[in-house]
Specification:
Elements lengths: L4 H15 L12 E6 L14 H16 L3 E3 L9 H10 L3 H19 L14 H15 L1 E4 L4 E4 H11 L6 E2 L9 H6 L2 H9 L4 E11 L4 E3 L4 E2 L2 E2 L7 E10 L5 H7 L7 H11 L1 E11 L5 E6 L10 E4 L5 H5 L5 H11 L4 H6 L7 E8 L6 E6 L11 E4 L5 H9 L41 H14 L3 E7 L4 E2 L12 E4 L2 E4 L32 E3 L4 E3 L9 E3 L8 H4 L2 H4 L12 H7 L2 E6 L7 H14 L9 E6 L3 E17 L4 E5 L5 E3 L7 H14 L4 H8 L5 E11 L13 H6 L10 E3 L8 E6 L10 H7 L2 H10 L7 E2 L5 H15 E2 L2 E2 L8 H19 L3 H17 L5 H11 L4 H10 L23 E8 L2 E9 L4 H10 L1 H7 L6 E5 L3 E5 L1
Parallel strand pairs: 1-2, 1-24, 13-15, 24-25, 26-32, 28-30, 35-38
Antiparallel strand pairs: 3-4, 3-5, 6-7, 6-10, 8-9, 10-18, 11-12, 11-14, 11-17, 13-16, 14-15, 19-20, 21-22, 21-23, 26-27, 26-28, 26-29, 26-31, 33-34, 35-36, 37-38
Helix pairs in contact: 1-29, 3-4, 23-24, 24-25, 24-27, 25-27, 26-27, 26-28, 28-29
């Protein structure tokens, strides 16, 4: 009976689907375990073999936990809103919903083929209205909340209104906009409803504000910092500029400290935690106010080194700082405007990363030192960011390398004073940035003090003169929550006199309208500006045609959509109760599942999705909607499976070098492609050179070299060209030249001369990121068809530790395929099942229990690759022992089940069991089977081992000596002699001397 993986895998996949084998229960007596994969975006390209790596790991854990008696929630769904589908819609005119559904169907087909134990009854899609109505509801809760610093949590906005009505805002400690105007309770109560709404917008956790954003004209949308690479959009490589726009934002900054502290309570990698710490960027220091000469405005700066205030020689504002236009003098106006325009074309990330370029412009304005009253020139420079701190720095060149470089670069120019040294240290070559090992000098009342004492004293003095105070600052900025695109969650917002109004929960969802085109309108409005039915009727509570807008009962709806991270910032909770129409999840379901026990996904989401998810989870906890502070207890970042790219080498030049001359032969008259195997082979190159020369008899340079070819070193100058893996033999690396030439990608190679190695063209190979553009993608469907899903699962785990990147090599998969066939033969021969009820040997039990121990430990430690190795060792040992014993093979099938579930199910069924193996109890390790009862001793004569003898371990030295001396092999060695000495160490050595 042969192992036919296709039949077996299809059979059990159908069984699981029909019987809902992996459906989790929300009211089980079993302990719960929630294992989750990061939300996939369903791209049109489908899955390649790199994508399932994390899914296979999480599936092994999910299956293992079921065997261990847990009620396991292992769901899957799709983060199906996003820019790629919209861009495709713009290009083709096809509705994003259509292509998204097609992509999801393709993903589902591929995922099912690999045999994942997902609870598909809980599938969610962020682009489905029955999902995003809850995202809209969460947005409304954020709008109707404020952050109370006193209670250190978000509260309903009604509690803030109550405070205003009772005592005004003077004593209210809230996370809010800067420059809040104080008012009394009497003044508040006298305000109109509209005026009160405008004030509340300054406190709400989601609010409208004019914000510096990354605007991509080509895509017609705002991009987050992590969507920009080297100043261009990650999607499409389009230019990105900085501009001000009115946007929805979220006060994630209110949670900065809690986001930091929460990292100490979760089991994440230290590198991932450090990424979040750096992104949050906590700094302790002081806020200092500098008055501006000839202006009423002031410049506020945040500094971590207030002790250096007497070293300030100039100030730098971000080019986009709101004061720049106001304070720039007429003489400097042209230079400042040109610099501001140039800076707008660079992303914040690019500006932060570029530490080598020094640029800036003097505004012509001066600030006033708070203590000395000396004039301080005000510059602008792109190394200062408007969104970080206050967008202004007090430059102390003697104590900061960047200020030092800036001051020296502009040394001697108008508006740049000489560097002032306030340390008793040499700064002739570089700034002195240390916080210890110095005394302050030239610093008035701070002279002679160190960093700690100086900081404390200067803050006291700043507070005394009303020019500053101690402050904790965070790099983390409020998150822009608007996108000027179509394919995203609509906001549940309409506008009355320019003020946002929320649509009540019972009228949700506000469904994305149909539009004729997905580009922004001609006057620059977002794509929803093309919708003709996009207005809110407040009487009938429905969306109606725009022509009905009267601003009395029918009003305009929000034209922006929510960003890609909206739906993915709470999706794990929806899985807990995915069929609930009335709420995002019931309190019973939330209390039962609490949060995710194991989360597996890519490290690229460290400062995007993971930060926003933690923010929303904490907010929902504050408002009583979520049971826990943190969403993900343990998180593992899987490494990347890299592609093994293939290359052909197009010849550019054929160089011939000798001691006396270097001849560079241009071969553009004919297209040559050289095999990788002969690129460095001088003898082969000489043969080819001679052949090439014969084709070009008129080329004197060729003939000159050929006549004395042994004196020349030959070298090809080539361009590597990526080759589609379908036209090569993946094991021998030989190019199928005919298939290559017939491939549509390589039509321009028609007529090319192939420089082969004995008739074979060998491609070059290189490990790169698996990518469609590099033609190195391996389709998991092909692997499943040829070798089976169980082979794919085992092989991906076998490649190496989960967290590490590793190259894919299809050639290596045959070994894993062979292992499964060898496993099968323990249970079957050509005539059927051969499992017996005979009692196994001690060695068989030993092999089994070594494997139980190893696999249990490995899964609990997420060391899946070493489990696969142990399976191979165990099966080899059992095959050598001719083990067909039920007492061994039944537990072995269960052991294999998390890794290779299809074959395990078939083996379990063949052993006479009904139903699925999925929840059968996992074998228990028994140490007694690993206790050694015998020892194979080497028996030596005068230190040379002559034979071995197996003896019980409980024998004494005298008993061992008696047995050894009686052995005929000993007598042959001694030939009648009596040894002078017999050395015996029980359990270790036997040595006869003399």
């Amino acid at each position: 009976m042969k192992y036919f993986h296709n039949e077996i895998e299809a059979k059990w996949q159908q069984y699981w689907a029909k019987n809902l084998t992996f459906a989790a229960q929300n009211n089980s007596d079993k302990p719960k375990y929630y294992v989750l994969d990061m939300f996939p975006y369903p791209s049109g390209a489908g899955l390649h073999v790199g994508h399932p790596l994390g899914y296979i790991a999480s599936d092994i854990v999910a299956r293992f936990k079921r065997h261990k008696g847990f009620n396991v929630l292992h769901p899957q769904g799709y983060d199906s809103f996003g820019l790629p589908a919209e861009q495709y819609a713009i290009q083709t005119g096809q509705h994003p919903d259509t292509t998204t559904k097609e992509n999801i169907a393709r993903y589902r087909e591929q995922l099912d083929k690999i045999g994942f134990s997902f609870d598909w009854s809980r599938e969610v899609r962020t682009s489905n209205a029955d999902y995003y109505k809850h995202t809209q509801w969460i947005f409304i809760q954020l709008f109707n909340s404020w952050y109370n610093i006193t209670s250190d949590k978000a509260e309903d906005i009604s509690t803030l209104v109550a405070l205003f009505e009772k005592e005004g805002n003077a004593n209210v400690k809230a996370v809010c906009d800067d420059n809040i105007t104080p008012f009394s309770a009497t003044e508040w109560n006298a305000l109109s409803s509209e005026a009160q709404q405008r004030i509340l917008l300054q406190y709400r956790l989601t609010y409208l504000a004019e914000t510096e954003v990354n605007w991509c004209p080509a895509l017609g949308t705002v991009l987050a910092n992590d969507e920009i690479i080297n100043g261009v959009s990650e999607r499409g490589g389009h230019p990105v500029i900085r501009k001000k726009m009115t946007q929805w934002s979220m006060r994630i900054s209110a949670y900065a400290e809690r986001l930091l502290q929460g990292l100490e309570t979760i089991d994440w990698t230290e590198s991932l935690k450090e990424s979040q710490r750096n992104w949050i960027g906590k700094s302790v220091g002081a806020s200092v106010t500098f008055n501006l000469k000839n202006h009423d405005e002031v410049i506020e700066v945040f500094t971590t080194r207030p002790d250096t205030i007497f070293g300030v020689t100039f100030m730098t504002l971000a080019p986009e700082h709101e004061l720049v236009i106001q304070i720039t003098t007429p003489e400097q106006k042209a230079a400042v405007e040109a610099y501001v325009e140039a800076t707008a074309k660079r992303s914040e990330r690019e500006r932060m990363a570029d530490v080598k370029t020094i640029s800036g412009v003097f505004t012509g304005a001066y600030a006033e030192h708070p203590f000395t009253k000396e004039p301080i020139p005000v510059w602008i420079g792109d190394y200062v960011l408007a969104g970080y701190g206050t967008g202004a720095v007090m430059a102390v060149p003697c104590g900061d390398e960047r200020d030092y470089a800036f001051a020296n670069f502009f040394k001697g120019t108008h508006g740049m004073p000489a560097i002032k040294n306030i340390f008793n240290q040499d700064i002739s070559e570089a700034a002195f940035g240390a916080k210890e090992g110095f005394e302050l000098v030239n610093s008035d009342f701070l002279n002679g003090l160190d960093y700690k004492t100086g900081t404390k004293k200067v803050i006291e003095q700043l507070e005394a003169i009303g020019a500053g105070k101690a402050k904790v600052n965070y790099r983390l900025r409020d998150a822009v929550f608007s996108r000027q695109r179509y394919w995203g969650e609509p906001f549940p917002v309409y506008y009355v006199n320019g003020l946002p109004q929320m649509i009540a929960k019972e009228h949700l969802p506000i469904v994305l309208p149909e539009v004729e085109k997905y580009l922004p309108t001609e006057d620059g409005q977002p794509p929803l500006g093309n919708a003709t039915v996009w207005a809110w009727d407040t009487v009938n509570n429905v969306v109606v045609a725009n022509e009905k807008i009267d601003n009395q009962t029918v009003f305009a709806l929000e034209l922006n959509t929510m960003p890609g991270w909206a739906g993915s910032s709470w999706y794990w909770m929806r899985y807990m109760d995915a069929q609930n129409d009335n709420e995002f999840a019931s309190q019973d379901a939330l209390q039962y599942w609490e949060n995710v026990d194991l989360y597996i996904g890519g490290s690229e989401h460290a400062t995007g999705h993971l930060l926003y998810s933690r923010f929303w989870n904490k907010f929902l906890k504050d408002r009583g909607f979520a049971p826990t502070e943190e969403p993900f207890k343990k998180l593992i970042n899987q490494g990347m499976i890299l592609g093994m790219s293939a290359f052909v080498y197009r010849v550019q030049d054929f160089n011939a070098k000798s001691k006396n001359e270097n001849l560079k032969i241009n071969l553009l008259d004919r297209l040559y492609v050289v095999s990788h195997s002969i690129l460095k082979d001088q003898e082969k190159l000489k043969e080819i050179y001679i052949e090439v020369a014969k084709m070009s008899p008129e080329n004197n340079s060729f003939q000159k070299v050929v006549s004395n070819i042994e004196d020349f070193e030959l070298e090809l100058s080539v361009s590597p060209i990526h080759v589609d893996l379908s036209v090569i033999n993946d094991i021998t690396n030989e190019l199928d030249i005919e298939a290559f030439l017939n491939h549509p990608l390589y039509s321009d190679f028609e007529g090319a001369e192939f420089m082969t190695d004995n008739g074979k063209y060998i491609v070059g190979r290189e490990v790169e990121k698996m990518s469609k553009s590099k033609y190195n993608v391996v389709n998991p469907d092909d692997i499943c068809e040829q070798y089976g899903a169980d082979t794919l699962r085992l092989y991906e785990m076998f490649l190496g530790p989960l967290e590490q990147a590793k190259p894919w090599n299809t050639a290596g998969i045959t070994g894993v395929s062979g292992f499964l066939k060898k496993l099968w033969r323990l249970y079957f021969d050509d005539n059927g099942c051969i499992v017996t009820n005979d009692e196994p040997s001690a060695d068989m039990y030993k092999s089994l229990h070594k494997t139980i121990k190893k696999v249990t430990e490995d899964i609990e430690n997420f060391s899946f690759n070493t489990s696969v190795s142990q399976f191979m060792i165990c099966v080899n040992e059992l095959a050598q022992a001719k083990c067909h014993h039920r007492a061994i093979l039944e537990p072995l099938a269960i052991l294999v089940s998390p890794y290779a579930p299809h074959i395990a199910e078939e083996l379990w069924s063949a052993l006479g069991h009904e139903g699925s193996i999925a929840t059968v109890a996992f074998p228990i390790f028994e140490a007694k089977y690993l206790v050694e009862s015998e020892k194979e001793y080497p028996v030596s004569f005068n230190g040379k081992m002559r034979f071995t003898i197996k003896l019980p371990l409980d024998l004494s030295a005298a008993q061992i000596e008696e047995i050894v001396m009686a052995d005929e092999r000993t007598q042959q060695q001694l030939q009648g002699r009596t040894p002078n000495k017999v050395i015996i160490v029980p359990g270790k050595i036997i040595n006869l001397v003399g």
